[in-house]
Specification:
heterodimer; A: 0% strand; B: 518 residues; alpha/beta; Rossmann fold; Luciferase, domain 3; GMP Synthetase, Chain A, domain 3; five-stranded antiparallel sheet
Chain lengths: 83, 518
Amino acid sequence: MDSTKEAIRTYILNEYLPGESPSNLKDDTPLRTSGILDSMATLNLVSYLEQTFGIQIDAHETGVENFDRIEDIVALVASKKGA
Amino acid sequence: MNLCDYLAGSVVRTPDRVAVVGPSGRGLTYRELDDLSNQVAAFLRARGVKRGDRVGVIAPKSAEVVATLFGVMKAGAAYVPADYTAPVTRNRTLLSDCAVSAVFLAPSCAGIMAEWPLAQAPHVAWLPGGDAPAGMGTPWADVVSTPAAEGADLAGPDELAYILYTSGSTGVPKGVMLTQRNATSFVDWCSDEFLPRETDRFSSHAPFHFDLSILDLYVPLKHGAALHLVSEAVGKNPQELAAFVADRQITVWYSTPSILSLLAQFGGLEARDCSALRLVLFAGEVFPVKHLRSITERWPQAAFYNLYGPTETNVCTFARIPAVVPEDRTAPYPIGPACPHCDALVLDTPGGSVVGQGEEGLLHIAGPSLFAGYWNRPTSETFFERDGRRWYNTGDVVVEDPDEGYIYVGRRDRMVKRRGYRIELGEIEKGLYQFDRVREAAVVALPDASAGVRIIAFVTPSGERPSIIELKSFCGRALPAYMNPDAFVFMDALPRTSTDKVDYQALIGSQLAPKQPA
C-alpha cells in the first residue's frame, strides 16, 4: 500500500509539479479540482497506473471522485489489484 | 523642419533658461547648449564629416552628450547611440555595420577601439569624464575649442536624424533608420497632446539608444523646458529614483512600466514629495494592472498615459489612463486609438486583408513617423504597399474596440497552440499577477517532443514564496485549464534587457542550457 502511494506521489511530483518540495503534496491535496491535474494529465496518469500496476481503469472511473486526492487514487488502485 | 530648429527657436526665446541638467546636477543653459553643439559641429566638419554621414556615440548620459547629439545633426549627420554597458564586440559590430565616420566615446568605453581594423576605424573624439588614452583621438578640450564655422548644412526632412539598433527577433541587431521628419512629426504630436511649457522639468530615464529618449530629449528642448538626465546607476535604484523625482521637482516622467512598478513597490514614495509631477507616460511593454494601480494611487495629481509603438514608428497609439483604476480591474488598459499623425489598419496577415471590428489582427501603421527602413537591408522585405502608401507591420496582434481604440492582445511570436487552443503567453502572466504573492511573472513556451509545447512560468515572489502547488492551484482558478503552466521557476529578479524589458531570450536560454550534473 505504502509503496503504491509513494510511486503515485513520485509520478505526480515529477510530471506535474517539478521543483515542488515533496512534503507540500499531501494525501488529501486536491488535484483535479485545484488544476494540478487537468484532463490530459489525468489520462497520462491513468495509463501510468495501468502499466505500472497491471490494472485496467475504465473511462467512467477517471472522474473527480477517484482522482482528486492521492488517497482516492491509491484506493482505486488497491480495489483493482484486489479484484 | 529639423530637430536642430527646435533648439534654435528656444535659444532665441529663452537663451538663459536651463536646458539640460546632468546626473551630477550641473546644467547648461540654452545658449550654452547651443554654443557647445556648434563647436562639436565645427569640429566634425573640420574632420571631414559631412551631410549624410553617421557618427557613433557611446557614453553614459551627460549634458555634453546631449550637446554632441545636436552637434552631429548640426553637421548634417545622423547620430548612432550605442549602449555603453553592452559588450564592446556588439557595439563595434553595429558601428561598423553603419560605417560611422566618427565616434564620440567616454574614456571608459575606449575598449571598443581595440581590434578595430585601422583602415575602417572612425575618427575618435573623447567625451569628458576620466582620462582618455594617450596618443589616440581628440580630447574634449580640443573638440570644444574648435572655432564655430558659418553656414550650417542641415539634413533635409527625409534624411536621417539617428539610427537606433534593436535586437531583432533573430538576435542580429538591426539599425532602424529614422529621418528628421520621423522625429519631428512625433515631437509635434507630443506638443499638441501634452502642452509642454517652459516651466516643465522632464526626466530622461531611458538610455539614448532607446526610442523613449526621443520624447525625453526633443520635447522639452523645443519648448524651453529643462531636461534632467538620470544616470544608469540611479535609474535602476528605486529609492534614489524617488529622491530624484522629488528633489528635481520633475513635472513630466517617461519610462517603461518596469521602472514605475519598482518605484511603486520599493521607492518609499510615501516619504517623498513628488507633487510637481503632472504627467506620467509609459511605453515599451504591458503595465501589470496591480502595479499601475499602486503608482496612480501614489501620484493622484498626475495624468497617466499609455503610449504604444515600436521603434520603427515611435508612438503611434495612445490612451489616457482613468484617474482611478478600479479595484476589480485585472485586464491591462488598451493602447488606444491611433495618434492623429498616424494611420492604422488591422490586417489578418502581414499586408493582408482588413479584419472586421472586434476581430483580432496584426496592427499595421502608416504616416510621417514611419521609419525609412533598416540599415543595409532591402526595403522590399520591410514595408507593404497599399493604396499607394507604405505600411509597416508591427507584429502586434490587436482588437479594435469602438470606444477604447485598440486593445493589445500580444505579439504574434508570443502565441502558441497547446492542445488546439491558442494561448497568448501574456494572458498567463496577467493571471499570475493577480496572485498577491507574485511580484513579477514572465512566461515562455518551449517546444516539447511529447506535448508539443511546454509552458514555463518564471516568478519572483513578493513576501513568502508560494509553493508550486499554491501557484498551480491559483492558476487553476484564474485561468482556463489549458493555460496552467507545466513548470514554475522561482527567481530573485527577472532578467532585463538594456532597455528594461523582460529578457525573454535569456529566460528561454536558461531552460535550453544543459543541466548541471546533480
